[in-house]
């Protein structure tokens, strides 16, 4: 996606909130959850049962398994050395707020709460970020031409998308403006690759597709967790993209 489109998308996404898809309590005071966000959407990662003041709260981050752990907040204080510091803040409940999340923000976050000098409990959030982009080989967007969109879910590399799709019941679904799953519409060729965490939508553009919106959604059951919309416009050949998200009551743990 081009920078301009990204920006446009980001500007429209301030109501962004994400969905919590699973919440499991580990045996050793460690909780794990999955959250989904769209590129450009602001998110807030919860720190369960944090004490007030956040001075015993430390947030850590791993983008990839091999990248090492970065301390974002240490005992409530922002680590001024982290590259994303301007977009990070602590909520009053010690949650980690990420302003206008990008695909770079996907990964594994841990909120560590010290009970005393020896004991602590950890909550981990796996943040997965969804992004839609048009195929880069398309030079002209007009009726009669083939058009492709790719939808990619960025996940922490220690986590398998196959597991997410098959065990957690998460799906990547293409929908139109009336919320219809386009899988069964023969106009569209949809190719889903669980191994690569992505799905593409290909169709031949019709005259009436000007200003048509397609949407790639992450769903669980019948609910959308988050989605990214893409609008095709013929005039000036420009297309635009914006994230949309659905708030779920499951966030209230
Ligand atoms: C949070 O605190 C409540 C009340 O003290 C407790 O019942 C609950 O188990 C705690 N949750 C976690 C995830 O530690
Ligand atoms: C980070 O910078 C702020 C503002 O300059 C400062 O108040 C704070 O103490 C710094 N944090 C650390 C951990 O050095
Ligand atoms: C969405 O797709 C369904 C089934 O293909 C179709 O009947 C409906 O008209 C479409 N809605 C829009 C707004 O294109
Ligand atoms: C999915 O990702 C793989 C690996 O990055 C890429 O080769 C493939 O073209 C992508 N497929 C779709 C449907 O976007």
Q: What do you see in this structure?
A:
- The chain is 6% helix and 45% strand.
- The protein is mainly beta.
- It folds into 2 domains: 29-129, Immunoglobulins (Immunoglobulin-like), CATH 2.60.40; 130-252, Immunoglobulins (Immunoglobulin-like), CATH 2.60.40.10.
- Strand 13 (189-193) and strand 14 (198-204) form a beta hairpin.
- The relative contact order is 0.19.
- The structure holds 2-acetamido-2-deoxy-beta-D-glucopyranose (4 copies).
List the helices and strands and how they pair.
Elements: H1 3-11, E1 19-25, E2 30-38, E3 43-45, E4 57-62, E5 70-74, E6 77-78, E7 88-90, E8 96-98, E9 107-114, E10 120-134, E11 146-154, H2 161-166, E12 170-176, E13 189-193, E14 198-204, E15 212-220, E16 223-232, E17 240-245
Parallel strand pairs: 2-10
Antiparallel strand pairs: 1-2, 3-8, 4-5, 4-9, 5-6, 7-8, 9-10, 10-11, 11-14, 12-15, 13-14, 15-16, 16-17
Brief summary:
The protein is mainly beta and 253 residues long. It has helices spanning 3-11, 161-166, and strands spanning 19-25, 30-38, 43-45, 57-62, 70-74, 77-78, 88-90, 96-98, 107-114, 120-134, 146-154, 170-176, 189-193, 198-204, 212-220, 223-232, 240-245.
